[in-house]
Structure formats: C-alpha cells, structure tokens
Amino acid sequence: MRPDPRLAPASEGRCTMTQVRIGESHIVEPERRVPIKGEYDVVVTNDCGSVTSAPATLTVRQGPVITASPQSQGVCPGGTVTLTVAAAGSEPLSYRWRQDGIALAETGPTLTLADVGPGHAGVYDCVVSNGCGEAATAPAVVTLWPETTVTTPPESQTACAGADVTLSVAAAAGPPVSYQWRHDGAAVPGGDAATLVLHAVSAADAGTYDVVVTGACGAATSRGAVLTVAEPVQILRAPEPQSVCEGAAVTFQVDVAAAAHVTYQWRKDGTPLEGATAASYTIAAAAPADAGIYDVVVTSACGPVTSAPAQLDVGTGPQIVEPPRSQEVCVGRAALLSVTAVGAPPLTYEWRKDGVPLADAHEPTLLIAAMGPADVGAYDVRISGGCGDTANAVATLALGTEPRIVTPPQAQTVPAGSAVTLRVTAEGTAPLRYQWRRDGQDRPGATQAELVLSAVQPADAGLYDVVVTGACGSVTSTAAELVVLMIDSDGDGVPDGADGCPDDPLKVQAGVCGCGRPDNDSDGDGVADCVDRCPGTPAGMPVDANGCAARDCDQNGLDDLWEITSGRA
User: What is the 3-state secondary structure (H, E, C) of 435-478?
Assistant: First the structure.
C-alpha cells in the first residue's frame, strides 16, 4: 500500500506533491499557511516524472475597520446634520445606520438629517460589515439646540446707596452662549456673564437693566429690571410732644427727606399700633389711656430709622380725690380745711364761705388761725383745670363744745359677790374719752362709758366718778358711792351675793335637785334620787340617765349583760 501523497513547500509560490497515483485527485492543505496573496501553482512528481499545474490566484480578504467615526453635533430646529463614517476592509462594505439602537434606512457612509426636529435628537452609530465580519462606530450624539429664550429674567430691585446689587438671568440656548447687559439701552462694560454685579451703587446706577442673550440659534432680550437706588431715610421733623384735654383730637406727624418706597409704623410705649402705617397718626378723641410716649419707625431699602419720642399727656377736668372734712373746732383753736384733686394743670382753687369768695384763699388748704363764732359756716372750694372743667367740694365748720355730764353714775348698795354696773352719759365735741376712778384713783382699763364690776367685795366699796375728756376740755362727774354688804342669810359662810342657794345652808349651787333638796344617790348608781326612776339598782350595774338598766330585754329591772357577767342570769 502506498502512502498518501504529501505536499511539501518548494519555494515561494510553488509547492511539490509526492506519492501521487495516476488517476487520483487529492485535497491537500499545506503544512504551513501562506498569508501572502498572489499566484500559486503545484508541481506533481512521481517515478515517471513531474508535472506543473496551472497557476491559481490567492486573494486574502480583510474584515471592516472603522477609521473615522461620526462626530457628535448640535443643531438648531430646522437645520441639517451630516454624519459620516470612514472604514477600511475588503469590498464590498455595507453600512447600517442606527438611532438609539434602532436601524435607519440609510445604507451609505453618510447620513444626512434634514429639517431637524425633536425626533432627530439621540445617539447615532453605524455598523459596517462585509463577508469577513462587522464593526460599529463610536456613538455620536445629535443634540437639538433650543431657540434662544430667556427663562428667568432679572428682577427689579430697590437698594440702598453704597450697597452691592446682583442681577441674574437664566436662558435656554445652544452653545456658545454670550451675554450683554445693558443699562437704559447702553451696553454695560464687562457685563458679559449671566450675573451682573454692581458694586457700591449710587443714584447714577438707577435705571432699567436688560440683557441680550445670544446662542447658536439666535438672540433674545430679557424684560427690563428697574433698579431703584434709595438714600438712607432722613427725618426732617419728628413728632412733637402734646398735651390735650380728654376728648380732643391729636395728630402726630413725621416729615422725611424725599426717600422713595418708605413705610411707617407708629408705636406707643414701644408697642406697634395696628393700622398706624402712614406719615401721620391721628387719635380722634383722646382718652387718658392714650397718654404715653409715641414714636414712628420709618423703613426704606436702607433699613429702619426711629424718630425721637413724643410725650402725649391727656388731661382731664379736675377730680377731687380727697374732699375737705367737716369739723368741730374749739374756740380759739386753728381750723384747717384741705382738698386733694387731680386734673389737667394748672389747677386753681377758690375757697368760699356760705357762697362768698374768701380773699387770698387760692391754695389747696385753707387755714383759720383762731376759730370763733364768725367762722362757723359752710365752706366749699371751686377747682378749675387746664381743660376748663370745674369741681366743687363742701365742708362745714362748727364751734366745738366742752364735754358735759348729762347723767352721772348712781350710788348703789349691793350684797358682796354681786355684779355692779356704773354708767355715765356725756356730750361734747367728739371724740370723748372716759377714765373711771375709785376714791380719786384711776382704775386701769376702765375707759368706757360703763364700768362693770363682777362679784364685788367689801374692798370694792368706795366713791366712784369718771373724768370725761373731749376735744375742747374735760369734766368730772359727781361721785357715786358703792356700798358692799356682807349678808349671809343661811349662815353657810358664803355671802348671799355669791351664794347660789342663799337660803340653803347645805348648798351654794342648785345642783341636780335644786336648792333645798340634797343631791343624794341611795343606790350608788350615779343618778341622784330626785331623778332616779329605778331606785335600788344593784351596785355596779350599768344604768341609763334615768337610773334604770341600760339593756333589759326580759324587763326584770337588771341589765342583761351585767346578769351574765355577774352570774345572775
């Protein structure tokens, strides 16, 4: 058996096959691959000789290679986008474009998007293929730029002179975006950003600001923002203090330098007044409760400024707080009438006697140095105040009288142990004071119109009088003799005055059975015989208030429990 033929390399482009039988055909792979394109033939040799085949052309095909991917692009609405891919590889090459992974109809190396709208935005790539494989480009993003639009315009502001002001704008636009701020239509130098900062503004910076925003798809101008530059509030005239009568109208006014956009808040005693937000504040009818300290807080863009305070006094007609007091004054002594009043100043006084004005009597007090009969009468004082009203108060002056004994104390004779009352009646200018005496000696604590002596004894006997003292002097009553008798009718040694049973020598108190009856207890049950309804009860047996058994169910006259405990049951 002959071995299979072998193909051995002979030289570049040529190889030799050995052990070939005539009439046979063979498919032989070379021992090494030949990656070189070109023409190849084969020399077949056996014992009878060799033969060379006709040449064969070897073509080496390459898969696709992306050499240039499409580029991301932005486009305005209605514009055109051209995406291009470049690839190397064996022809023919086929192209498959995709948007967001979805195949498109275009099959060439260039994709043109005309009249671009929102539906064209997305991620694009292209898959290039041939018989040897396929390759995808890097993704390219197609962005639909918006028409240039101002989305957030700058806002009008009021700023204090010297402050920094920031104006801002927000816009939707395709890149590149540029800004140009304008002041009253003129370009602001350096105003080329979305934010415009004005440092230390002054009145010259006031005006209207807008900004022109330019993008890939056109330009847009914002609406104007008005910048008002305010000066600090300057109070030219502060509210003034006022004094008015009750019921009068009051107006407080404040004047400020021409500062625009100011607000006002009036306050009373530091507390804001509701609704008081104008340059003036009016109280239609002032009342005492409206009195106080008023000021106004004026606020502008530069902050609040508080005016100087203004005191409001609300006066009332004179009112008498303490009227003059009617008096009885002893002859020759001084009399003083006084009045206390309040009201809107100045208060003036006019004293009158019996309706006739008194000369030089214009003070809150009226002094009469030495009271006499001519000074007796009705006095009044008319008081006038700054609010025009008048008040009047009346008091009477009368001559005081010396004390006089109307009814002197009466002499008394009483048994020892009796209670004695001595009385005096006196009259005169009050207050009257009393001092009782016995035999000319003051009795301590005896200072009333009555002197009560309880259980008198012979030692209490004597002459009693009373000294009555008033505003205009003093007087002593006639003396009343007190005689204390030692009477002992029953001879028990206790005077009748102190003896509860003066006719019973055995008792000095009535006791249970009364005078003349002994309080005996024959059965010793603690109940006197005179009230004992059950005499003769056994000793030690419990009894009730009537001397009978406390518990006697069998009605035998003996206490049931006592019967049991004593063994008599």
Answer: EEEECCEECCCCCCCEEEECCCCHHHCEEEEEEEEECCEEEECC
Every domain of the chain with CATH number 2.60.40.10 lies at 65-144, 149-230, 235-315, 319-390, 404-485
pLDDT tens, position by position, 105-121: 999 999 999 999 999 99
Q: Which CATH class is domain 319-390?
A: mainly beta
- Whats the size of the chain, residue-wise? 569
Tell me how far CA of residue 7 lies from CA of 10, 48, 50, in angstroms: 9, 18, 13
**255-304 pLDDT, tens per residue?**
998 666 789 999 999 999 999 999 999 999 999 999 999 999 999 878 89
CA distance 548 to 568: 17
CA distance 243 to 422: 66
User: Which CATH number is associated with domain 149-230?
Assistant: 2.60.40.10
- Write the CATH number of the domain with boundaries 65-144: 2.60.40.10
CATH superfamily of 404-485: Immunoglobulins (2.60.40.10)
Bridge partners (DSSP) listed for residue 333: none
Residue 521: other Cβ atoms inside 10 A: 16
Q: How many helices (H) and strands (E) does the chain have?
A: 1, 54
Rounded Cα–Cα distance for residues 81 and 69 (Å): 15
Domain 235-315 indexed as CATH 2.60.40.1120: no
For residue 315, what are the CA distances in angstroms to 12, 242, 287, 303, 346? 135, 11, 8, 36, 10
pTM over 0.85, yes/no? no
- For residues 502 and 509, the answer to whether their CB atoms sit within 8 Å is no
Closest CA to 137 of 81, 193, 86, 199: 86
